[in-house]
Each structure stands twice: as structure tokens, then as C-alpha cells.
Amino acid sequence: MDRLASMAAFVKTVDAGSFAAAASALDMSPQMIAKHVSWLETRLGTRLINRTTRRQSLTDIGKAYYDRCKMVLADADWADSLADEVKGAPKGRLRINAPVSFGTYALTPVIARYLRQYPQVEIDLVLSDRYVDLVEEEFEAVFRIGRLSDSSFIARELAPFRLVACASPDYLKEKGRSRDAA
User: Fold this and answer.
1) C-alpha to C-alpha distance for 56 and 59, rounded to whole angstroms
2) Which of 65-69, 144-148, 162-166 has the highest mean pLDDT?
3) Any idea what DSSP says for residue 129?
4) For residues 105 and 98, what is the distance between their CA atoms, to the nearest angstrom?
5) Which residues contact residue 116 at a Cβ distance below 8 angstroms, ignoring those fewer than 6 apart?
6) In 88-168, where does DSSP find H-type helix?
7) Does the pLDDT value for residue 75 go beyond 70?
8) Which helix (H) or strand (E) holds 122?
9) Distance (Å, whole) CA 126 – CA 148
């Protein structure tokens, strides 16, 4: 059995006052509620609820366990709500570093659209052609052209990139052609 489900059944039984009332609230059978409580008692090696045909009452350990279960279940609900928040709309600060030319021409229009869609995000865009230390300078995303030098980072190729050297005819007359240019 699932421990949290059994704890929830136990807490609902105590709150509702009976297996039948807990079963109704949790959309289960009273027998299933009883199995959850019995499983907890077997697992713990102690009785949590004293039961008679007319009423039920918590044992001393049952009272302490009930209080703790309520806290555990509340913490579990809180953890779930944190995950739900993260799945929701993004918010917070996002530090991005990119080369000047790429950032200026390709990234800023995308960031503008992103900020319109997610106004709770604050983007700190740093355009620089120097290689930055992602960890030291606290960047969440870095755009680079070329090979990744540190293999501990995750890299995704966005698009092929080709460098093209261009010069005016006057410049070439004055300076000549590079030996590498064909």
C-alpha cells in the first residue's frame, strides 16, 4: 500500500469519526479505509485506533501519529503546490549571455516576444563577445558560436552558423587578399 494514501485514510477516519464517513469523503469503500488503517498499524506494530461496534477512539500513539500525519500530508500538499507553480507561468530573473552581434540581431526580438508572453519574468541580457564563467557570473543561459569547451554543460545546437569574410574592392586593392581566402 502507499504510505501517504494510508496516512490520508487514517487522518480522514479520525476527522470524520468513522470508517464509513471517511470512505464517503474519500470515495472509497469502508473496507478499503479499514485496510489502510490496518496496514499502518501492522507496519508500525501498534494499534492506532481502538474500535468497538459503536465507536472508535485514538490510542495515545494514535493521537501523536495523527498529529504528525497531518503535518506530513500538509507538507506533501505544499510540495505538490510548488511543483504546480513551477509548471505554471514562468517568473523570476533569467540571466542570459550572448555574443554582441547574435544578441542584437537574433536574440532581442525573441526576448521581446517572450517578455510580452511572460511579464513576470525579468531578463538580464548581457551582450559580450568574451567567454563568461556561467557559474561564477550566475548565468542560466549562454549562447555561443563554436564548440563547447566544458563538457559538463548541456549544449544544444540551434542552427548552423557560417562565418563569411567580406571586403570592399578598394580595401582589397590597398591591403591585398588574405592567404586563407580563396
Assistant:
1) 10
2) 65-69
3) S
4) 11
5) none
6) 100-102, 108-117
7) yes
8) strand 121-127
9) 19
